[in-house]
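Sequence in, structure out.
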Amino acid sequence: MSTLEEAKRRILALCPADQMPMVDFELRMLATSLEAESLNFIHQHWRPIADERNQLREQLAQVQAKPAKSAKPDTDSDVRLTALTIDHANLKRQHSNLQQKYDLLVEEKTDVQTELAVLQLAHKKLQADCDDLLTDSRPARERA
């Protein structure tokens, strides 16, 4: 005996005799509603999963049934390979040109930094000479 039938039997045993037909009807309606809810849940949640599984099985069967590709060369892929090879060569050339420009700029920067260091040393020497001239304590010549 199912648990639903057992529960129905216990509820009917507790109910007065004059209410039994109505309670029996309500219990059957409740059981039908529960079964409908269960089927609705299955339809909403499990059915899409089963449909997807079936579609994947069909796709797998189609893939397995397809004959192997022939060994003839694919001209479209050859054209694409040639185009990509040309693009790659152009990019390598551009990279080489940019690397040369970068190297030249680094050399120029080094030269500028060297010139700046020389000028800073000259500036310090001139500043020291000016400071010496300003602090020179020799007596000034008298004018006659």
